[in-house]
Known about the structure:
The protein is α+β, with helices and mostly antiparallel strands and about 70 residues long. The protein has one domain. Helix content is about 20%, strand content about 30%. It is built from one helix and three strands, in the order ββαβ. It has one helix spanning about 30-40; strands at about 5-15, 20-25, 50-55. A three-stranded antiparallel beta sheet has the order 2-1-3, covered by helices on one side. A hairpin with a 6-residue loop joins strand 1 (about 5-15) and strand 2. The longest helix is centred in the middle third of the chain and has 12 residues, at about 30-40. The protein starts with 6 loop residues before the first strand and ends in a 13-residue tail after the last strand. The model has no long low-confidence stretch (mean pLDDT about 85).
Amino acid sequence: xxxxxxxxxxxxxxxxxxxxxxxxxxxxxxxxxxxxxxxxxxxxxxxxxxxxxxxxxxxxxxxxxxxx
Length: 68
């Protein structure tokens, strides 16, 4: 059985409160990525923000400033 290619799923503006957050998952599908993040957090956020999808072999960098 051929293994599916992993993709990097990045949500910017994730679960904003006072400031926006960031969520990242390496998965075979967006659904799998979302499930992994929900499992990690222990809840399903109402606002996911903007989704960026990249192949896992692409160079990638991101940063999120903290604040209140």
